[in-house]
Amino acid sequence: MAIFSKTCEYGIRAVFFIAHKTAKGNRIGIKEIADGIDSPEPFLAKILQDLSRKGIIQSFKGPHGGFYLDESSLNRPLSDVVEAVDGNSLFNGCGLGLKACSEINPCPLHNQFKEIRNSIYKMLKDTTIGTFNDELLTGIFSLKK
Amino acid sequence: MAIFSKTCEYGIRAVFFIAHKTAKGNRIGIKEIADGIDSPEPFLAKILQDLSRKGIIQSFKGPHGGFYLDESSLNRPLSDVVEAVDGNSLFNGCGLGLKACSEINPCPLHNQFKEIRNSIYKMLKDTTIGTFNDELLTGIFSLKK
DNA sequence: TCAATAAAATACTTTTTTATCTTTTATTAT
DNA sequence: ATAATAAAAGATAAAAAAGTATTTTATTGA
After folding, report:
1. Structure confidence at residue A3 (pLDDT)
2. Beta carbons of A100 and B145 less than 8 Å apart
3. How far apart are CA A46 and CA A38, in angstroms?
4. 3-state secondary structure at position A24
5. H or E segment and range at residue B67
């Protein structure tokens, strides 16, 4: 098992890619994004449509249309993307799958998981969609392969 | 998305349950385990057969048969259970799903995920199947609901 | 207005995960 | 030996996730 669903992995890679490709007000098409992050195009289209509907990214139809990010979207934490796609069970669900697990009715690993969930949440909250724009321009980070 | 698959959640809950129910040399049947951890019985049977085949737990057929744990199984780290069921991608896979992600070809979140994976691994390595036997006897921990 | 462009929406297929059901094998006690 | 017990094995089924294809809507520029 991976931490995120495939949908979420593609979604995060896509928002990073869109961020660094549309830094100066332009837009980018689904084909180029899918190619840039090595994902199946029609599947990614659905993911981005969903993120667009939820206001996480922006889009525009027609010629010279495409996906882009406005200023406030660039500053969104990655946790918003994850929550939009995978929900918030990663941040507050029980590690052993118990619905009623809580401080007063804990599973054996309750406290251990609380720490881990918090560190995942903190990491995603402290990283914005635009965080890596500079580094992506220099090519030191990979979003495909 | 949860951290573990359903299969793995049931597996971990089951080994904890078997550990505390068979502390004094006896065995426990699949029905009682499924009931004790609130899991679908035939599905759990599959999981336990697999764990038994892999030597993570022990079993015995026939009257008074059932599942149990020998001394060395009780001292196994939980990471062995997780690895047997979900594989080791949780411990060494890329958070963004990139096959070739590594120190020399990192994804943007490579270092952040390394820390998180390490803390998950450490937690599972430091916890053995028998770790909670005493606490489970007192009923302070829940394995169902 | 019309053709071209590109995302949105919808419907569908495949694969994987989760779950169930049936038959077989091993063991015990009578 | 035989009947009862309980896990092992195998075959199927249902649900969810991943992926594809087709049609519709919005926008632009000629």
Report:
1. 97
2. yes
3. 15
4. coil
5. strand B66-68
pLDDT of residue A1: 87
Q: Which domains does chain B have, with CATH numbers?
A: 6-133 (1.10.10.10)
Q: Which of A4, A1, A2 is nearest to A87 (CA)?
A: A4
Specify whether the CB–CB gap between B4 and A95 falls below 8 A. Answer: yes
Residue pairs spanning A and B at CB distance below 8 A = 128
Tell me the helices (H) and strands (E) count for chain B, helix number first: 8, 2
Count the neighbouring beta carbons within 10 Å of the beta carbon of residue A142: 22
Give the model confidence (pLDDT) of A32-64 as tens digits.
999 999 999 999 999 999 999 999 999 999 999
Segments in chain A below pLDDT 70: none
Contact by Cβ (8 Å): B101, B107: yes
- Determine the average pLDDT of the residues in B29-50: 98
Q: What is the pLDDT of residues B102-136, one digit of tens each?
A: 999 999 999 999 999 999 999 999 999 999 999 99
Give the CA count within 13 Å in the CB-facing half-sphere of A113. 21
Q: B 8-37 residues with CB below 8 A of A?
A: 8-10, 12-13, 16
Contacts of B109 in chain A (CB under 8 A): 123, 127
Torsion angle in degrees (nearest 10) through CA of A84, A86, A91, A93: 130
